[in-house]
Fold this sequence. Notes:
The chain is of the alpha/beta class. The protein has helices at 49-56, 79-86, 104-114, 119-132, 148-159, 178-195, 206-212, 230-235, 240-250, 256-265, 281-292, 323-335, and strands spanning 3-15, 22-34, 38-42, 64-69, 72-73, 89-93, 166-170, 198-203, 215-220, 223-229, 269-275, 295-306, 309-319, 340-342.
Amino acid sequence: MPVLVELRGVSKHYRRADTGETVVAVEDVSLDVHQGEVLGVIGYSGAGKSTLVRLVNALELPSSGSVTVAGNELTALPERDRRLARRNIGMIFQQFNLFRSRTIAGNVAYPLKVAGVPKEERDRRVAELLDFVGLLDRAYAYPEQLSGGQKQRVGIARALAASPDLLLADEATSALDPETTSEVLGLLRRVNKELGVTIIVITHEMDAVRQIADRVAVMEQGRVVEVGDVYDVFANPQTGAAQRFVRTALHDRPSPETIQRLRERHPGRLVTVQITDEAGLQNRIDQVFRSAGVTAELVYGGVGEIRERRIGSLTYELGAVTPAAVDDAIQALRAAGVTTDEEAAA
């Protein structure tokens, strides 16, 4: 796919006014965003992800490096031209940022009015967008009359008003409950699939990445430490940061406290086996256990889907006449390409 956003060696440093200390928000980030994809950018608080999104839409300029969107190197443009380039970039926020004094229709129409779009065309576009986000019947309501999820739908409609190629969602679901979050993420996926809009989702929630993203970039201390297909990162995270995020989203591995509780009822050896969408994997695991002569009781785990591909892990209590038989079973699984970990005592 063609590259829509290109960051090369981007850094952003601040100098604190009170101490004169240099603060590194983003450091040497090079990243491509392909046209038509959804890229999740994830990191804990302070990782630099919100600064990164402000660099992408040139609300801030980098200390070094270049940012190119749709062929325009924003860092090389004068401010007037950057403002024009931003019209091709929509933005939605955690706190919605709606005008309380304007109706829902008025909020969506606002960027079109600023751009000088004639009223008849504005009205047509507003109706089209409100219908798309399911709020046409609330066109003349005011923001305080809407739920949080409805307000975010208005924010999405407003961000799409100028038909941007790129949509930036900065923690857009952090203020919403889980059910509403899923609805908003589903709407964003429709924006991507039906309208062809490229989306960058900034979040600290790996579950949001799992639901919507095609690829994920993991940030830590201002750097992008891992980038990959979302399924590949979930199935085989390469960095400690990615591993921590994956655990929070899948909930398929027992915590040390859970292992301790399991051991009170299951004195055998606890072994966790990774489950992927590989055909026949479960049958192969069961066959290994039978061939090694071990008993295998499922005691913990979870299996879900990412992009319609199975992923998760299952924890078994393995028992046998001799410890060597369990060792043989574990080695046979690993020899067969199955990722397997023995859970140590807490």
